[in-house]
User: Fold this.
Amino acid sequence: MQNLEKILEEIDREIEERRKDPETRDVDICYGLNRAKEIIRKHMNDGWIPLEERLPEGGEEVLVQGEFYSRRNNMTYTHIHIMRLNKMTGEWNGVYGVPNGKVIAWKPLSDPYFPEEGENR
Assistant:
């Protein structure tokens, strides 16, 4: 991850340098560099999709990351569950019901593991 952070910093420096010089202030180049940053950030999040970016289709089970704040000890807790989004109500539901707190990101579930033929089970 540190290497990706360094790449992002280098891209930021390149954008700043290009914006200073009227001859290299090419909008397409700056757009391309910003798009590269978005792609790198997406991979840095290991497939997690923030709710602000987009919601799951609805109905399918996905892995969700939520957080809730506890006044009792003044801490914010993170939790991860498998849930579904009800597109009609906008409500998340899972095995344990509606999450305590708010969902902040989600990602599709991976395919299940299937042992190869002949492997001991």
